Amino acid sequence: MNKKTMAIFTLLVLVTITGIGWLSSALKPERVSSLPEEIDNWVELFNGYEAYLDRRISYSTVSGTSMEPTFGENDKVLWVEVDSAELKVGDIIIYDHPTKPGENPIAHRIIEIMKNGEYRFETKGDNRLESDAETAISAYFVSEDDLKGLVIGVIYAAE
């Protein structure tokens, strides 16, 4: 084998080894870790979702146990403003209590939707046997004016 052939052969081997190394690293799955370890600033994550959803994401802290086991005391519910027409039975909404202004917002599941000129929602906590309209001292349905938004996620509190 002459020097020129040997140099070409060596170069071909090096290119092949480099190509195999590049291909194997490209096919190797990346290590997946949990979000809290990887994202120091949750706001950055939510800004990305806001851009994707084209809606502002808000959050509220849960007080009470009416939605257990879905979420409970001190969990954070993430929500976005929505048009009432977008909601359906089974969605969890967040709203201001219609008969107790100034209290913390309530997050409950829609069990019935009524439309008579405007939307009204009958809601119920997952941990309740009866709807809010049946258990309240003064029965109420959630109006469009009291509706704040649709719950889209939960950040569970550390135990």
Describe this protein's structure:
With 159 residues, the protein is α+β, with helices and mostly antiparallel strands. It has a domain at 57-155: Ribbon (Umud Fragment, subunit A), CATH 2.10.109. It is built from four helices and seven strands. It has helices at 3-27, 35-38, 42-53, 132-135; strands at 57-61, 76-80, 92-95, 106-115, 119-124, 142-143, 147-155. The chain has a seven-stranded antiparallel β-sheet with strand order 1-2-7-3-4-5-6, with helices on one face. The N and C termini lie far apart (72 Å).
Strand content: 25-35%
Determine the fraction of residues in helical runs and give it as a percent range: 25-40%
Helix and strand succession? Answer: HHHEEEEEHEE
What is the CATH H-level superfamily of the domain at 57-155? Umud Fragment, subunit A
On the 0 to 100 scale, the average pLDDT is 80
Calculate the terminal CA-CA distance, rounded to whole Å.
72 Å
Strands across the major sheet, in which order? 1-2-7-3-4-5-6
Oligomeric state of the chains in view: single chain
Radius of gyration: 27 Å
Indicate the structural class.
alpha+beta
CATH architecture title of the domain at 57-155: Ribbon
Number of helices: 4
> What characteristic shape results from the CA principal axes?
elongated
The description of the largest β-sheet is: 7 strands, antiparallel
Number of E strands: 7
CATH class of the domain at 57-155: Mainly Beta
The stretches of 5 or more residues where confidence is low (pLDDT under 50) are: 31-35
CATH topology of the domain at 57-155: Umud Fragment, subunit A
